[in-house]
Amino acid sequence: MIEKVLIANRGEIALRVHRACKEMGISTVAVHSTADENAMHVRLADESVCIGPPSATDSYLNIPAIISACEITGADAVHPGYGFLSENARFAEILAAHDITFIGPTADHINLMGDKIAAKTTVKDLGIPVVPGSDGGVTTDEEAMRVSKEIGFPVLVKAAAGGGGRGMKVAPTEEDLLEALHTARSEAKAAFGDDAMYIEKYLGEPRHIEVQVIADSHGNVAHLGERDCSLQRRHQKVLEEAPSPALNEAARAKIGEIVRNAIGNLGYLGVGTIEFLYENGEFYFIEMNTRLQVEHPVTEAITGIDLVREQIRIAAGLEMSFTQEDVEFSGHAIECRINAEHPKTFTPSPGTIRGFHQPGGLGVRVDSGVYAGYRIPPYYDSLIGKLIVHGRNRNECLMRLRRTLNEFVIEGVDTTIPLFQELVNEPDIMNGDYHIHWLEEFLDRS
Predict the structure, then answer these.
(1) Would you tell me the crossing angle of helices 307-315 and 11-23 to the nearest 10 degrees?
(2) How many domains does the chain have?
(3) Helix axes 307-315, 296-303, angle to 10 degrees
(4) Axis crossing angle, helix 107-114 with helix 116-125, rounded to the nearest 10
(5) 69-110, pLDDT tens digit by residue?
(6) 9, 39, 233, 339: which has the fewest C-beta neighbours closer than 10 Å?
C-alpha cells in the first residue's frame, strides 16, 4: 500500500487530496511556492517543502523540484490533482523512472487522449459517437474548405492540442472559414506550440454532458453516471449538476454502458471523464480528461463514492471498492465554482480575506482552502472554493442552494457568489432548460 503521498498541487484540490489520504492512514507532503507558504493544505500536511517562487513555471510545474521533494521526504507516490502536471505524460514517466507511483492513468493514455485528433479516432473505433468532422488534422486552406463543405456550415475550427477554449473558432459561413482558421492556428501556436487544426460540425444549442468512469488493474470498470456542465463562460465551466435534467433513465443507461465498454476495451486505469455535446437526443464526443475533474464532488454526492480514495487504491494496485452493480444514484447535486472575481466584469480580485463564513447543514459541502486572514495571491487560477449541495430531488437541491448562497460570506475580495444568487432564481435554471451558450447570452442581457 502507498505510505506517503506528495500532493503536487495547491488550493482546494490539494486540501481535498490531503483529507482523503489522512482518512486512509496515509502521510502527506505538501509542496508549495513562496506565495503559498500559509495555505491551508501546507499547514495541515505532515510535511511541507517549498519548491520555488510564485510563478507556476518555477514551482508547481517544476518537475525536478517536485522529484527532489519526493526524495527528501521519502514520498512513494504523487497525486497531481487537476491542472498543472495532472495530464503531463512526461511527468508520469519521470516519476516511474524514480520508482514513485503516479496516482493517475498511464503515460500512454495521457498522451493518447491529450491529442484531440488521435482521441477522436480512438473512441470512434471503440464505439463512442463523435461529432461529424475531419478524420484528422487539416493542413491547407483548400482541405479545410473541402471538409467544411462536406460537413455543412456552421463549423468549428479547433486546435488538436487545445484546451480552455484557446485555438477554437466558429465559422458560421463559407466566407468566414479562412479567417477563423488562420486566427485559431495563430492562437494554438502561441498557446501550445502546435498549430495542427481539425474541423467539426458546430452544434447550435447543445448541452455539455460528461460521464465519469473508473477502472482498476483487475479488470473492473464502472461508470458513475453523468454530470451536466452546460453553464459556461468562455468555455470555462461555472456550475455543474448531477444527474443532468436533460436526460431520461434510458439515455443515461445507454451512454453509460457505451462509455463503460469502451473504457474497458481501452484498458484504461484510474478515473477519467468522457465529455460530450448532447443535442436532439444524440451524444457527440468532445474529449477525454485523464484526471480528476474540478466537479467530481457532485458525482460523489449522488453515489457516496470517494473518487480520490479510489484513485489511491487503484494506483496502489488494489481493486476498486465497488462494482458497477453496487453503484446506486441518490438524489440530486449541484456545484457552484466560487471564484475571486467581480461577479459582473469577472476581473480577478486577489487580496486578503477579512471575513469568512461558510454555510452548513444537511447536504452541504464546501471545498475550499481559504480562511479569514488568508491572502489570495494574484499568480494562479481565481477559484477559491466550491459549494456543493445535495437534495433528495432537484427542487430540494435548488432550495438548499439558494439558502446556502445567502449564508456564504467572503469579505475583503470580490467573488462570484452574487452571480449564483441571480442564476438560481432564473426560470430557465429552475426548469433545467439551458445550453452551453445560455450563460453568455444571459450575461450579455444583464
Answers:
(1) 70
(2) 3
(3) 100
(4) 100
(5) 999 999 999 999 999 999 999 999 999 999 999 999 999 999
(6) 233
- Tell me the C-alpha to C-alpha distance, in Å, between residue 123 and each of 33, 120, 156, 214: 38, 5, 19, 16
pLDDT at 197: 87
Give phi and psi for 109, each to the nearest 5: -75, -35
Give the pLDDT of residue 162. 66
User: Which run of H or of E encompasses 294?
Assistant: none
Q: What is the dihedral of CA 282, 287, 293, 294, to 10 degrees?
A: -80
Is 92 within a domain? no
Do both 245 and 334 map to the same domain? yes
Cell 432548460 maps to which residue? 433
The residue type found at 367 is D
H-run or E-run covering 285: strand 282-289
**Which residue is listed with cell 473504457?**
263
Q: How do 197-201 and 236-242 pair as beta strands?
A: unpaired
Closest CA to 241 of 295, 291, 288: 295
Contact 266, 126 (CB under 8 A): yes
pLDDT of residue 390: 98
Low-confidence ranges of the chain (pLDDT < 50): none
Greatest C-alpha distance within the chain: 61
In DSSP notation, 109-151 reads HHHHHHSHHHHHHHHHHTT--B-SB-SS-B-SHHHHHHHHHHH
DSSP 384: E
Owning domain of residue 338: 207-445
- Residues near 346 by Cβ (< 8 Å), separated by ≥ 6? 233, 339, 416
DSSP string, 165-205: TEEEEEE-SGGGHHHHHHHHHHHHHHHHS---EEEEEPPSS
* Amino acid letter, residue 110: I
Does residue 383 lie in a domain region?
yes
Q: Is 352 helix (H, G, I), strand (E, B) or coil?
A: strand
Residues 400 and 439 in one domain: yes
Residues with active-site annotation: 291
Mutual orientation of helices 141-151 and 177-192 as an angle, nearest 10°? 120
The neighbour count for residue 166, using CB atoms within 10 Å, is: 17
Q: Are the C-beta atoms of residues 212 and 151 closer than 8 Å to each other?
A: no
Q: Name the one residue in this structure whose C-alpha cell is 514517466.
A: 93
